Amino acid sequence: MTFWQLYRRNRSAVLGLFILFAVFAMAAFASVLFPEDPFRLAGKPMSPPGENGFFLGSDTLGRDVASGIAHGARTSLMIAGLATAVAVFIGAVLGGLAGYYGGWTDDILMRVTEMFQTIPSFVFAILIVAIMKPSIQSIVIAIAVVSWPAVARLVRGEFISLRNREFIQACHSVGMGDLRIMLAEILPNCLSPIIVAGSLMVATAILIESGLSFLGLGDPNIISWGFQIGAGRTVLRSAWWVCTFPGIAILLTVLAINLVGEGLNDALNPRLRERT
Amino acid sequence: MNHSAKRIRYVLKRLLQAIPVILAILVVNFFLLHLAEGDAADVLAGEAGSATPEYMAQLRQKFGLDKPLPVQLAIYLKNVLSFDLGFSFRHNMPVSQLVLDRFVPTLLLMVSTILLAVGFGIVLGLFAASGLNTWRDNVISFFALITYATPLFWVGLMMIVVFSLKLHWFPTSGMENVAMFYEGWDRVKDIAHHLVMPTITLSLFYLALYTRLMRASMLEQAGMDYVVTARAKGLTERRIVFVHILRNALLPVVTMAGVQVGALIGGSVIVESVFAWPGLGMLAYEALFSRDLNLLLGIFLLSALLVVAINLIVDVIYSFLDPRIEVT
Amino acid sequence: MNTNASLLDLRNLYVKLPGGAERTHAVEDVSYTLNNNEILCIVGESGSGKSITARAIMGLLPAPHVHVDQGEIFFNGENLTTAKESRMREVRGGEISMIFQEPMTALNPVMTIGKQIDEVIRFHTKIKKKHRRERALSLIESVHLPDPKHIIKAYPHELSGGQRQRAMIAMALAMEPKILIADEPTTALDVTTQAQILKLIKELQQSHDTGVLFITHDFGVVADIADRVAVMQHGKIVEIGTTDQVLNHPQHPYTQALMRAVPSLTPPAVREISDKEELIVNKLTKTYTSGGGWFGLGEKERVVHAANEVSIKLHHGETLGIVGESGSGKSTLARCIVRLINADEGEILYHNVDLRPLNRKEMRPYRSKIQMVFQDPFASLNPRSKVGRIIADGPRILGVETAEADKRAREMLELVGLDARAWDRFPHEFSGGQRQRIGIARALALDPEILVADEPVSALDVSIQAQILELLADIRERLQLSMIFITHDLRVAAQVCDRIAVMRLGEIVETGATSTLFSNAEHPYTQELLDAVPGRDWHPQ
To answer: Which of chain B's residues have a Cβ under 8 Å away from the Cβ of A119?
Structure first.
């Protein structure tokens, strides 16, 4: 069966893909749909949804909630995507080296990984951003720093199980170089779990990013969903919509990515599915 | 083959293993201090410039900031190990005392959350797995999927809107109604009343996590050979599920509970700041606003130690569940 | 139903497989009977449906995907296919018991042996706890496990493989069942342990009058314990009869082919071997250390001598067998010779060059000279690489031009008897035997002088095994190869090897010409191994 045929069997994964496309489209066309700066005062403050030309209402400063959500989609996807890419890269390199070489290399790298996993990750991220001053770079760095250990453990486990397989020993017995064995022989065999873990990590990254900007640690020049909710919480009593809609945006996006991740898992590791 | 002696040895071993982790966390803390703008004294004194020049000079001397980095590190370690975490000018109190004061509310929130999330997660996961692909499984899995994708702070805010502002069931914020001067059982009841919403908010995400994990773990164990053996022995399905599968399925859940403690502390920062729960998380939120980095570092340190401690407890629990510990 | 009915009577049993499977039924039209105090062996290769039949009797088919859709199973005249689940629970463990292939995974890892035995008694009787404990202790004693009071409190991981299987048998016999179903109970065990377990099953069967349904793929085992034999192929019974009839006078062509494929324990005529020494291994030592450290808080430091001053000589054109049980260090030795593992001490002399201390770069020119064939045909080929690349990669790495390497690889495919179309396919499209051929082609593509084969046929069914052994013998002649052949199977060793070295606990206890070793073993351990070979007194024609 082709990949798509396998993927399609999981209905909710298809739905997830659909939602995710919608979010991407929203991010891509944000400047077309809402050409103005989302921080701009766009009309009467505290307008409920549907009034004064605000589809989803306006906040205390008269900013358009809908515009903020569309532009915020860009921020979320970009930061989460970048952070995940960095985390997967670091994790794959360190995990791969630890798993392949074993011995003291493994001991040292795994102690470091363990320590990073012991550190409360969100508090650590807060500290990094606070110390480096909030900006896109610092947020990406913070999320990547707290996310890579999970990838490292996964990749290490895969490398350990694969490096003892007989086909890898066959490579050694013809004198193949370590780098080539790692990249050309082992890595292709553990790509699917990495892809699945990576996709689920994007979802977590979005949640961390929104948490950071909710606490006021977002890049002050860029609108984001977490920031919108943080800014709206003071008027929770009188203007529920300011907090509600960006929250739904986060929920749907994260849900969609999780569903896609599960769908990828089912399609890439079909054996696991058969049993249930 | 003395099992309890083995267990004690295992716990001691884990205790020893925790020491390098704690030291490494201290080193990370030290380097974070150096990552910030200005020298460590600026950070330690708080950025608003609220410290007096004399105090700044005293700090620089105390931390040996003119000395090479390794010496500074040694001095820093010595200070921390004697529980000297510096002074918070914002709060006009030593950091160590400040964090200790806020420690108990956070611990209360954490413990109630862990109990709720792990307990219900296990029960829900068990229910879902035992009725695979029935409506029961579908409802539980759907619920887990949604809560797994919801940001904590948003859940908190929505709960405030519904249960506090609309229904008036629970207070919106704080840990107790200070104005009432409750004592004894009344005070306990009051605190419990305040505790309900923060606990539910914080536990929802983890509840979803443990439910999914427990369900998957139950299904995996149900396919094992020993289950066929149990069936071939003529045991009832009830006995097989609740005695054979359950105990094996719990192992990864307990491991996960330990791994997730760190994340839980992160979540408590958000939940405490949403519900103004006067714990470490709330303190961190305040420190963020006043850019009191030294206080943040102190909180970070204490929460890391808390994770190490809870992980140790989880290891002990695990050793009771799995007789094979000394093998791994 | 008359009261003289057989203990177990299967009549035209069909077991349906879910849609999309290779065939519609796992078991088709199977009928046989089992009587009191009788051992019936069900023999067949993998996928023949022998295990599924057993599970159908126990009502343990993975419903609803796989189920009995026609036929009856009568147990003492009672139709089990229509019995209620509550009645089946009484039958299972009470009147019909089962033991399995993997005693490690078949026992619950977090429950003590005592508790797992106790459970059976508790669910089938109303005996009080104290008496149940006494019963468990006597059961443990009856399967000859040492120190029952200690075993009853032990967890499965604390026992050895053979001890676990004994515990499993104790559990199965707790209620003195009328039928014991044994599903490949000795396949995962070493040959000496296997012999003991077989003896135990036979002893208990005779003393309790039990009917035993014994499932196996090993005709040696059949010869040792069976009263009657049923041979299965593709879900059907092709032949059934007494052991003598089936083993010595097979009627069906399939059974005849199987009998021919079983290697004989009598070595063939001695071959002429040159005196030229191709490889000399001198006092090779490899030690593994684990545990220790942590101020003595960790587990006790364990030192394993995987190879302890091992010395062997390989002559030109000779096949030297290394024989031993699991943990004897035979695989470690093979890997040290191919330099997949670095030995600690000793010499590996190849034409007077010591290979042991060579680093990667220095080793390069010698890599192609010594090549390896691996055991597991599934793990030994990269699932993501096409067969052509797998074979041609070796020469390319060692500097052969791509076109030349490809040409050589195609020749190798032909040499091992594979179609040229295999070139562009992935390993998963091939059967186990074909994959093993690909593995052999990969090793031969480098034009080696020495082939180290690590259990090359032990993962294969007996008929495929014969083909691969034939291929190896053919290649050895045509390419003038010298071969080191690692195996645990003395029958295979008898047919393939010119000389044999017997290994135990990292040491070589005895080396000698195959025929001498088989007729006149000097070391008691060699004799023990020979005595343990299943079907030793049976000589397939």
So the answer is: 25, 28, 262, 300, 304, 307
